[in-house]
Amino acid sequence: MKRYLITATLAVLALASSACTPTTPYAATVNGHVIESRVIEDELHAITSNPRYAQALDAELANLGGLRPGGPNSVNSQYAASLVYEQVLAVLIHDELVARNLTVTPDAKAAVITSLRQQGNDPTLFDSLAADYRDHVVTVQTELQAILDSRSTPADLRKYYDEHASEFNQTCFRQVPIVDPATAEDIRTRLQAGGDFVALAKEAGGPDAQPASPEPSCATDNQLNETARKILADLKINDVTEPVRAQSGFILVQVVSRKQLGFEESEAAIKEQLADRQAFFAEILGKAKIKVNPRYGDFVPADPASGRAAAITPHEAVVLPDDAAPVNDSGTFSGDGAPQSGAPQSGGTQSQTQTPE
Predict the structure, then answer these.
(1) In this predicted model, what pLDDT tens digit does every residue of 153-203 receive, in sequence order?
(2) Cα(102)–Cα(94) distance, integer angstroms
(3) 59, 135, 226, 309: which is deepest, by most CB within 10 A?
(4) Residues 115 and 256 grouped into a single domain
(5) Terminal Cα distance for the chain, rounded
(6) What global pTM score does this model have?
(7) Residues ≥6 apart with Cβ < 8 Å to 257
(8) Residues 6+ apart with CB under 8 A from 173
(9) Is residue 5 domain-resident?
(10) CA distances (Å), 2 to each of 8, 59, 240, 269, 278, in order?
(11) For residues 262-287, b (16+ Cβ closer than 10 Å) or e, as one string?
């Protein structure tokens, strides 16, 4: 079953259409914009009031206690935190769309609707959701795609290269599998002294080893994991590592060459990077000022060194108030402060208010 989340596919929560006051409980603030707690509560009620969707979510969250681990009036803390996180992204996506002076077309929205209906095992599930929820899902997904499509202009590519030049430091290296660690030091010494790579690799790998290619593998810094970067960073050209534990036994790694890739050599990789939604999320979240109501958890920024992505870490199950807006017979929200049926405002977000100082 597919959840309609931006980070997996898409989810978006409508911002409240009425201005909030400094005393209004907030779910999160994003660069001064307030996401009201009541909106999250109404959205959770809309989702849990849809029996088919709730049942599918309950199965998906089974290893986390299900959708309602604290009873019928509570919601799984991880799921609630994910919805707040998605709303944070929705605000940042819309802001980026406005900053880039982009628009979305009816054809683009129609393509997104078709894609969403095709996700999962039940093609009718998306249409069973509340009308306002569907409208905003489609709008934000379309906004996101418009941004990603716009990020590969020649100016964008050049700007990314100039600002991330260190990512295109390329290291070329060769690997020698080691069958017997006791022979590793001898193989390492002879390899580093200029010994024949193919012959030494054959000797190190044993009689059943496949012939080794003398051609090195090459990777840029951002293509290597943190462990590999640290190992290679300490080596000079032709240096060979001490035995390194691999998935099957040990290997020796020899650095063959290093260079800075030029813009033309990097252009294809930059296009791929700029079209990657997770990379885009990391970029916009890294520049944003975000505060989350402790009721929903804590916002934890990304840690590039460890590869950890930004996230909202939840505390405990979120208990919903009894008066949160239900879903009425027409499939739209009802109740004060909840979005009503009809087309969303331009860009897919409603009015946003500034965070009180």
Answers:
(1) 899 999 999 998 888 999 999 888 887 777 888 888 888 888 888 888 877
(2) 10
(3) 135
(4) no
(5) 42
(6) 0.65
(7) 171, 172, 216, 237
(8) 216, 217, 218, 232, 253, 254, 255, 256
(9) no
(10) 8, 12, 47, 29, 18
(11) eeeebbebbeebbeebeebbebbbee
Neighbours of 192 (CB within 10 A): 13
d(CA 160, CA 152): 10
Q: What is the extent of the structural domain holding 174?
A: 165-262
What is the DSSP secondary structure assignment for residue 332, as one 8-state letter? S
Place of tokens 């409603």: 350
Is there a single domain that holds both residue 128 and residue 189? no
Same domain, 175 and 140: no
Q: Which pLDDT tens digit goes with each residue over 57-69?
A: 888 888 888 888 8
Same domain flag for 145 and 181 = no
| Domain end position, chosen among 262, 295, 313 | 262
Q: Is 19 contained in some domain? A: no
Q: CA 146 from chain center: how many Å?
A: 17
Same domain for 133 and 172?
no
Residue 130: phi and psi, rounded to 5, are -55, 145
Phi, psi dihedral angles at 170 (to 5 degrees): -105, 135
Same domain, 239 and 298: no
